[in-house]
Design a protein that fits this description.
The chain is mostly helical. Helix content is 56%, strand content 11%.
């Protein structure tokens, strides 16, 4: 999945307010993207195939940052051949998870966005990931790593 979603500064849309010391859904989505990128660097992306999730994460992060994503941007950001990415865009659209919006300045280009249903589902999935992280102590493990790094 593209580093594009990771490399830009964070701008949330107000729907993802973290509790004190807790990650928000944007941070969780970015962490998920980073973990997938690290895994793919270690093993190669050919072993793992989940373009729909990669696309949903990318669209969620860019929605939080109020950034438009063109079809070509999403295809480039997904580690599959462009024809496969286009097929998955159609699947997500048919499932009611993404919308195509024409660029008012250039009718040849279309932007993609998550539907309200997809946003709600992404927030639930990411909130559950945050809760799982809290429940199983992974946050505490990160704190231990940070302390060890300081020593």
């Amino acid at each position: 999945m593209g580093e594009r979603a990771e490399e830009h500064g964070s701008k949330t849309d107000g729907n993802v307010c973290p509790s004190e010391g807790q990650p928000d859904t944007l941070t969780t989505a970015l962490a998920w993207i980073r973990a997938r990128n690290v895994r793919n660097e270690a093993f190669g992306h050919e072993l793992f195939f989940d373009p729909a999730w990669d696309m949903l994460l990318d669209l969620f992060v860019n929605r939080c940052r109020d950034r438009k994503v063109s079809i070509s941007d999403l295809c480039v950001g997904t580690p599959v051949p462009p024809t496969t990415a286009l097929r998955w865009i159609t699947v997500l659209e048919n499932k009611g998870l993404i919308l195509r919006n024409a660029d008012p300045k250039d009718r040849r280009r279309q932007f993609l966005s998550l539907t309200p249903v997809a946003v709600a589902r992404m927030e639930v999935a990411l909130d559950r990931a945050i809760e799982s992280d809290r429940r199983y102590g992974l946050g505490r493990l990160r704190l231990v790593d940070q302390v060890n790094d300081l020593l």
